[in-house]
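Holo prediction. Input below; ligand is iron/sulfur cluster.
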Amino acid sequence: KYFTYQHLAMSRGCPGKCTFCGSPKFWKTSNVRSHSPEWFADEIESLVKSGITHFYISDDTFTMDKQRVIEFCTLIIKRKLDITWNAISRVDVIDKDILFAMRKAGCIQISFGVESGSEKIRKTLGKPIKREKIIAAFSLTASYGILPRAYFIYGSPGETMKTIQESCDLLIAIKPLSAVFYLLVIFPGTHLYQSVVNKHLVTDNIWYQKIEDLPWFEVDEHLDFNKVKAFGDQLRSEFYTNLDTFAQDLDLVDIKDLYPFHADFLYRLAMTFSHGEYGGDTRIKNQNETARQLYDKALSYGPDARAFLGLAMLHQKQRQFDKAILILKKGLEHWSENKDLNICMGVSLMNTGRFKTALSFFEKFRKNPETTQYINICHQNLSRTLP
Ligand code: SF4
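Structure of the complex:
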């Protein structure tokens, strides 16, 4: 709704051996084939010229080849392409250098497959990564101002309330700022699917039936719908009830070069809590307070116009117009010609009955259709108060 975006990939394939994943079968190989950084940067540049500003980079594991990714990021930075993008990766193939380069090149989110908090289940799912490594990767990613997003899977072989509790514990330890919880479904071509075919629990004929997918619990005598539903509910509840503290606990690296990026990251996250997806979600606690802290923190890294605006809008939302006016005054000291700050100031002043002063802010943008109604309201109110 707010920007134009495009899905792209620099590489195809993944050398991982996750037992639920169809990637090797889909690409018919576990080898990774990749475009060159130049080719990929050219592709992005041509899309930028046609007005695209955000990219979903959907490589299975974008950071698999560190050098290639850093070269790509360097090209994006050199060409001054003003873009944002998301990527998908694994916790065992990121480090400080790559995160620094990615952040400076516009990366705002990395999704990692955590899968489970149970070491045993991670092993069964073919991702035997140590707990400490997962925690470190999430903390490092967030510290570079990139939103770490977690994919969890539940309803896996061996899943019980105890293993779900382990997933909840890991969730609390990694503090993801976004999370997706998938019920395990098995697809042809995956190791797990083949294992149930080998046990004669299903045959390929199942796909002639009117089914959308095959959840693991349907072939596992230890699981059933009610159990896995409870697993999913437990995980989601743990995430949403703790999300405010995850955001409030953010600890960013102190690298001067990244200050404007930190301000941008914190402003975006604050906006999600105050006016975006998290703002309207009743499962999340303390949205406004979390947003306020994040906006304040964003402004501690520099005078970001959007952070001033977001904070003022938050006060407006709470009908604290005088507080909004104070924030906007500070913002306008840095960005006197910023349309949104001026209009927001006008609206706050209108709400405190100061129509004449409000008018002076709207008049600067009188050609803008957005201000017409406000200008009319001001004139109507002023004419009423004239003797
Ligand atoms: S789940 Fe991710 S890491 Fe595992 S094989 Fe598939 S693409 Fe690779």
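Strands lie at 5-8, 11-12, 33-34, 54-57, 84-89, 107-115, 147-154, 178-183. That is the main takeaway for now.
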